[in-house]
Amino acid sequence: MRTPVIAGNWKLFKKRAEARELVNGLAPLVKDVQGVEIIVAPVFTVLAAVKGALDGSAIKLAGQDCFWEEEGAYTGEISPGMLVDAGCSHVIIGHSERRQYFGETDETVNRKIKAALKAGLTAIACIGESLVEREAGTTFDVLRAQLNGGLAGLSAGDLKDVIIAYEPVWAIGTGKTATDAQAQEAHAFIRGVVSELLGKPAAEAVRILYGGSVKPENIKGLMTQPDIDGALVGGASLKADSFAAIASFSM
Prior knowledge:
The structure is a single chain. By secondary structure, this protein is of the alpha/beta class. It has a single domain (5-248), classed as Aldolase class I (TIM Barrel, Alpha-Beta Barrel). The chain has helices at residues 16-30, 47-54, 80-85, 96-102, 106-118, 131-135, 139-150, 180-198, 200-205, 219-223, 240-247; strands at residues 5-9, 37-41, 60-63, 90-93, 122-127, 162-166, 207-210, 230-233. An eight-stranded parallel sheet has the order 7-6-5-4-3-2-1-8. Strand 2 (37-41), helix 2 and strand 3 (60-63) form a beta-alpha-beta unit. Helix 1 (16-30) packs parallel to helix 2, helix 5 packs across helix 7 (139-150) and helix 7 (139-150) packs across helix 8. The chain is globular, with a radius of gyration of 17 Å. Homodimer.
């Protein structure tokens, strides 16, 4: 059995007071949710404030990115160990916005995943195709290449600390959502590639999340699919009631 994961990526939103208000509103709404791992990923500057607000809650904390070196002359970067020190248990790596705007590649994603695992973090590794790639019929080629590059050099044992997030780029922040069948098709393909790379037991155990305009209205349909193990939520995670409704999909 794979424990479902509902993770909220706050992106570039919420200063300290707003972040505390959101968490203080969210925690009581999800306190009775059982069998679901709930994670929030705020901006770096509010991690400490959010960690304090989460004390006594089962909600886990994630960074939105990290660097692949632990320390050194890398102005502006955040190391995996610094995230651990701030109270994080998880880190998002390779989000499509990082790839699109900041030059992330499969190679840098791979280096960051390895650094995160070394520091004791669980890596939420993002992959996904653009609209142009989907319309060109190359979705599976893109996903295979991202998996081959991102997971290069990892062992089956490493995969227990990796969560894969499938995010069709054309569905992020657009209001468009892949149909349940489209999402399941991609997730099943991803699990098949992981099986080829690291073996069937590892593939069957790894959790694969869907991301892309996830809302309370579509979460239940997505979660009925056999290979969808949760969601990486963007805009809907910025309000306590909508994120709580998504996290409570099983209730």
